[in-house]
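Dear support,

Our group has been running a series of protein-ligand predictions, and this particular one with guanosine-5'-triphosphate is the one our PI (initials K.S.) wants archived with full inputs and outputs. We had some confusion internally about which version of the output was final, so please treat the block below as the authoritative record. The input we submitted was:
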Amino acid sequence: MEFESVNKVAQAAFPTRWGSFQIMGFEGILPSARPCCEHGEASGKRVEGLVALVMGDIHGAPPVVRIHSQCLTGDVFGSLRCDCRLQLELALKKIADEGAGILLYEQQEGRGIGLMAKLKAYELQDQGFDTVEANVELGFAPDCRAYELPAEVLKLLGVPAVRLITNNPEKVAALQSAGIEVVERVSAEVEAQDTFERYLRTKQEKMGHILDSIPDALVGEE
Ligand SMILES: Nc1nc2c(ncn2[C@@H]2O[C@H](COP(=O)(O)OP(=O)(O)OP(=O)(O)O)[C@@H](O)[C@H]2O)c(=O)[nH]1
Ligand SMILES: [Zn+2]
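Confirmed final output from the archive:
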């Protein structure tokens, strides 16, 4: 879906545990609600927000960029049902180590289905469904995210080419088809833990994620 407009609405200094960033708020306006996402059938225009953390000179060689999808349970509470928090920290450390880079934090909780639906999906997973099956059982696509907004924000930031921190080939393809060159994929793989090993295996088996530490021989086993 095409945005009618994307604008920066705020910028401020942002000191963190990893170093000093600029925090920026962006807003994109869509002509109508997305068909598959948490906001359902609501009519009328839809405003989507995105937070960017920017460090250093991003206009030389292609900078490292992380598109991180919101995960309240992982990012804030440190949940070990998923690898999100560890990936967020990996990305911020990578940017800090390079002295330059961008974290785009998009508000697509639960792969776009919303927080309450994600909690319902967790309930189903406790009954034996995997992360993909749970979404489908609740009437959603396995993944409801779109990446046009981060692509438009990169264009506004004057960044035509990136080194993308991700294990998800769909993010690489989506950015490229939105006109951002991905010159390298930088692994976002973290050490598997018992509590989210099944989650990683499902991402590898059903969502095509590139995860070297999960042996193929284990794929499909429960
Ligand atoms: N619907 C649903 N969403 C989940 C679940 N666990 C984590 N998420 C959400 O999944 C998103 C992160 O997606 P992942 O599939 O873990 O990783 P990715 O962003 O596709 O790929 P990477 O760039 O490699 O991290 C966040 O929005 C989380 O809130 C779950 O069991 N069900
Ligand atoms: Zn998570």
